[in-house]
Design a protein that fits this description.
Number of strands: 12
Structural class: alpha+beta
Order of helices and strands: EEEEEEHEEEEEEHHHHHHHHHHH
Number of domains: 2
Strand content: 15-25%
Shape: elongated
Distance between the termini: 33 Å
Oligomer: single chain
Number of helices: 12
């Protein structure tokens, strides 16, 4: 997909500024393509060209549909609309883009929305001074579901009542739902820039979060306390690793030499020993997870105790993400950037998100349509 460099242009009131331009090709009447640089005007409905451009392209100006274009201050310009085959890249051709040819030379050549920008994603990158074009990141079906889930997400947030879940469950549930919300935003951002190769990594993390949440909600009070206790274990473990490498990096050096180190180290160590016994294996070593089992064993437990086949999803989606993470040769050789790959990962994202929302919305008043979407999106995806 093309990326168009901006250009510096002088203005009367503001000096030189960056102006977005597009380098496109219009097909002339003789079949050849003519390259043109047009100023991008995202506020213009239709693209605009000067009168002389019609003759240049071999077009009979007045044979087009006559319209009247209103400008700033109410000034009207007569123009004639012609549909022209437009090429943005070698394999990106729009067969009939409407261009309004003004009956005057006193107008700028502008590229408007109709026929091009309404079919693409446009990113005005002020850092790189360029306009980046991409194909839409969602198909029509996924777009409808995504918008619906966004509305549902806002509905849940606006009606969230932490008092429904006594402490510490309210804190942990809120932490996990917030993290799921962040993952949905990350998936959207990656998909928008067509970074499909990293989507599976977020889905892998989403699966693990959703599985933990499912386990948590089976006994929310007791397991939430265990989750909070494990924060102390994780904090102690990270502290020990930092102390092991005191000279690696400026940040670690500041940590080791901090005047608060002695007090902080003693407090973290004491808190750790208060909860450590709850996370010991039979061999005396600590578990790496707050739920005190391997993730696959957790998936098996959830499959046996609930309505979803978490184990199958572990062997399919989580394992696929792990193989990709660790550079598995087969995964790297077969990975696809095609639309169906994005579609699958988008579906998986709202699949796991809806499983989590299903728990927290059980005490909320939703429409029948909202309940139905949550139910359908929560089903097994194997």
């Amino acid at each position: 997909m093309p990326a168009w460099a901006w250009r510096r242009r002088p203005t009367v009131q503001f000096g030189e500024i960056w102006i977005p331009f597009a380098q496109i090709e219009l097909r002339k009447q003789d079949g050849r393509y003519q390259s043109l640089a047009l100023q991008i005007d995202s506020g213009a409905v239709v693209s605009l060209l000067r009168r002389s451009m019609a003759e240049f392209l071999g077009i009979n100006l007045t044979s087009g549909q006559q319209i009247s274009l209103a400008g700033i201050g109410g000034h009207h310009t007569t123009a004639y609309v012609h549909r022209i085959e437009t090429r943005l890249d070698v394999d990106l051709i729009f067969p009939a883009v409407p261009f309004a040819f003004a009956d005057t030379e006193h107008v700028p050549n502008l590229l408007g929305r109709l026929g091009i920008f309404d079919q693409l994603q446009i990113d005005f990158d002020a850092s790189l001074h360029q306009t980046i074009t991409r194909t839409p990141w969602l198909n029509e079906q996924d777009a409808q579901i995504w918008k619906f889930i966004q509305e549902l997400d806002q509905h849940v947030v606006s009606r969230w009542d932490a008092s429904i879940y006594p402490a510490p469950a309210n804190r942990v549930i809120n932490m996990m739902i917030t993290r799921a919300h962040q993952m949905m935003a990350t998936i959207m951002n990656l998909a928008k820039v067509h970074n499909t190769w990293d989507l599976i990594l977020i889905i892998r993390a989403f699966y693990e979060l959703a599985a933990q949440f499912e386990y948590l909600m089976q006994e929310s009070q007791e397991r939430s306390q265990k989750y909070i206790d494990f924060i102390k274990v994780s904090k102690y473990t990270q502290m020990q690793k930092r102390l092991k490498y005191p000279d690696v990096g400026v940040v670690l050096n500041r940590f080791v030499n901090s005047p608060l180190r002695t007090e902080g180290e003693a407090r973290i160590t004491q808190e750790y020993h208060e909860v450590r016994s709850g996370f010991l294996r039979q061999n005396g070593r600590e578990w790496d997870q707050w739920y005190c089992m391997k993730l696959r064993d957790l998936a098996d437990h959830l499959t046996q105790s609930g309505p979803y086949n978490w184990l199958a999803e572990y062997d399919l989606w989580y394992a696929e993400g792990s193989a990709w993470t660790h550079g598995d040769p087969f995964q790297l050789s077969k990975y696809s950037h095609e639309e169906e790959t994005v579609h699958k990962y988008i579906q998986l994202s709202y699949h796991y998100y809806c499983r989590m929302l299903k728990h927290v919305t059980s005490t909320m008043v939703l429409t029948n349509e909202q309940y139905q979407v949550i139910k359908v999106c929560s089903e097994d995806f194997c």
